[in-house]
Design brief:
Layout: E1 3-9, H1 15-30, E2 39-41, E3 50-57, H2 59-62, E4 73-81, E5 83-85, E6 94-96, H3 105-110, H4 121-130, E7 133-137, E8 146-147, E9 150-151, H5 152-157, E10 167-180, E11 183-190, H6 196-207, E12 211-221, E13 224-225, E14 230-231, H7 237-242
Parallel strand pairs: 1-14, 3-12
Antiparallel strand pairs: 1-3, 2-3, 4-11, 4-12, 5-6, 7-10, 8-9, 10-11, 12-13
Length: 248
């Protein structure tokens, strides 16, 4: 078996879980041991996230994985305002946002910030539009970025301080699809290397409410679309073989 397989990753599965699952299936079909079967993914998704995972099946295609690791992507995002998370998503410790952290000292003295203030839809739209184009973004502490040769998330899990530098990323478009406080749903077209968790946290700060990413679904990677993806549940060798695509 050789080709590109598009998988709709379910929530709760790591990207490696999906790779391992498909690898075992391919190995069984070819009469090989899984360790001798080449399957890899071209861009990870967080465990709680769902959506498009692009897999390379077979030696010929795993060799070409670097061609597919820097592609643009589209996400369907849900963020919850009014709370923040230690990881930027629903996996972390979630606490109410302290509004006073970002307001000026003068406003604090005058007690002009009300706990029940909620952003208008216009304010949400303005914030989404403000974070478009090339922006500077700090990756999340719980990310695979390396700090002195170690993964940031490993250091963060050990309780160590993680300081990552801001770097340029490109966000082509943020489009609001629904807003009912405290939940904001939007679609984001982004360039490679953009962290949606960081985008959500930046939006929360801009709105003065704080925010964390409560749901994420990837629907596009380059020319690959979620509409062509297979489900893990019910996946068989025949379905897998029928859905392998060539990389032109």
């Amino acid at each position: 078996m050789q080709g590109i397989l598009l998988v709709d990753k379910p929530s709760g599965w790591t990207s490696f879980d999906v790779v391992n699952y498909v690898r075992k299936m391919v190995a069984t079909h070819e009469g090989k041991k899984p360790k001798n079967t080449k399957v890899g993914h071209t861009g990870t998704l967080d465990p709680l996230a769902t959506g498009l995972l692009v897999l390379a099946v077979g030696k010929e295609y795993t060799r070409r994985m670097p061609e597919m690791t820097k592609l643009d992507k589209t996400y369907e995002v849900t963020m919850k305002l009014g709370e923040v998370s230690t990881t930027g998503d629903a996996e972390g410790l979630i606490t109410p946002y302290r509004h006073s952290e970002l307001v000026s000292e003068a406003r604090e003295i005058l007690n002009q910030v009300q706990d029940d203030e909620t952003p208008t839809e216009e304010a949400v739209l303005e914030a989404l539009h403000a974070f478009q184009g090339q922006i500077m973004q700090v990756p999340p502490a719980f990310s695979a970025m390396k700090v002195n040769g170690q993964r940031a998330y490993k250091l963060a899990r050990e309780g160590k301080s993680v300081e990552l530098e801001a770097r340029p990323v490109t966000i082509y478009k943020n489009e609001l699809t629904a807003y009912e406080y405290p939940y904001v749903k939007f679609m984001s077209d982004v360039g490679s290397g953009t962290y949606i968790r960081s985008l959500v946290e930046d939006l929360g700060k801009a709105l003065g409410t704080g925010a964390y990413m409560s749901d994420l679904r990837r629907t596009r990677v380059g020319r690959f679309d979620i509409a062509k993806a297979v489900q893990v549940d019910g996946l068989t060798t025949d379905i897998l073989a029928e859905n392998l695509q060539e990389l032109k």
